[in-house]
Structure formats: structure tokens, C-alpha cells
Amino acid sequence: MTIPDLDLSIVIPVYNERDNLVPLEEKLETELAKLNLSYEIVLIDDGSVDGSHHIINSLKKNNPRLKLIRFGHNHGQSAAFAAGFKAARGKIFVTLDADMQNNPADIPLLLEEMKNFDVVCGWRFKRNDPWIKRVSSKIGNGVRNRLSQEEIADTGCSLKAFRRECFDNVKLFKGMHRFFPTLMKMEGFRVTQVKVSHHARLHGVSKYNIRNRLFSSLHDLMAIRWMKKRHINYDIIQED
Ligand code: UDP
Ligand code: MG
Fold this sequence. Notes:
alpha/beta, Spore Coat Polysaccharide Biosynthesis Protein SpsA, Chain A, 7-stranded mixed sheet, 7 strands, binds uridine-5'-diphosphate, binds magnesium ion
């Protein structure tokens, strides 16, 4: 078991994000230096074939706070998060995308809310994505909230903060990263959301489209519905 000896672990899945990594590390370091907290940046290279690991390894030479976990193949974002959380040493995990669409300058907003909550979800209230993505995401969030009786405006936003204990009893499956807030609520954790900024992708391409997201998400949604319905709850009134 990893001992939590740092305040913060920034956990970032990376899949073919070569040209985003240098600006990402620079921006993160600028923003994190202002916080007066101990931290690490855990990058999980999810089987990139564009040489992302070369960039990370060269950044690591000048930055001892960078950690690289490199998969041999592409296993998906949930697997990357699972590996990152397992190795992470922070008391709080902050997740974000590697593509600079999330702004590291928003991390303090999340940490402020962490004073009263266990999970803080970013809400990209002004999305900078192509219209097809904005519309499909709006529909997706609507359907997801309705069917899972949830009220998270934007579960697709990777910028989130979690108390590390949130993952103690949660087994992660493929696709589950879209349902972290719901899973945490089931475990009794306090979840909230804050508005965060969102930027257009400058380098690389999105790894998701309607086809590869819609059907698997619907499938996952059914699993979440089932889990919510069958979640074990009991009240003990005597135990001797
Ligand atoms: N990603 C990953 N493995 C995958 C797909 C995506 O690690 O199989 C990473 C990707 O590099 C990015 C984040 O997950 O850091 C979100 O992906 P993307 O930006 O393509 O999604 P979008 O923002 O377009 O929904
Ligand atoms: Mg993105």
C-alpha cells in the first residue's frame, strides 16, 4: 500500500499527447508553486505511440516531482486512473486531462471546496469543443443524470479533486471514470461541483467520438443503475 506522505497528487492520463506535455508541465508547475503544498505529478502514459514517453522522460530529468507510469498498450482512461491512484502519494488526488483543455489555474478553486467536501467536480460551463461534441455531451449528461438519478452537470470533465480515501473501497472497471461522483456518493462521500474554465485543444486530437463513446457509455450506465439499486445498506442497532 502506498503511504500518503504528500499533500497532493496530480493524476493525468496521457494517450498520444506529445505536443501538449511541455506546456502542461510548465503551467502545472507555475500554478502548483503558488500553493505552498507538497505535491507530485503522476503521468500515466496509456500506450502512446507518438513518443510521449520520450518527452516525459526528458522532463523528469529536471523535475523530481514528475512520476511516469507507462502502459505497454492502450488500456483506456479508467485503467490509467486506477494505476495512477494506486501509485499516488497525495492525501488529495486532483485529476485532469493532458491536452491543456483543463486549466491548472483552476486547481485552487477545487481545493477551496475540498475544505467542506470529499469530491469536487469541475463543470465546464463554457465548453470550447466542436458543436457536435457539445451537443452530444449535453444529451449524454442529461440521459446519464436521469437514468442514474444524479445531478452532476458535467461528469465528463476530468478536472476533479478527491480525498484519497474515496477510492479505498471502490473497484474500478473500464468506463467507470465517467461515474466517479456517483460511485463516491454511494460510498457516502460528500460531492459538489464548481465552474471551471475550458479551452480548445491546440495540439493532438480527441480520443473519443460519438461512436466509441455512446454505446459503451450506455452499457456502463446500466451497470451503474444496477449498482445503485443493489447497493448494500444496513443499520445495526446492536452488536455485542
Ligand atoms: N486518454 C487516455 N487513454 C485513452 C483515451 C484518452 O489516457 O484511451 C487521455 C487523453 O490523452 C486525455 C484524456 O484522457 O488526456 C481525455 O481524452 P480526450 O481529451 O481525447 O477526451 P475529450 O476531452 O475529447 O473528451
Ligand atoms: Mg480533451
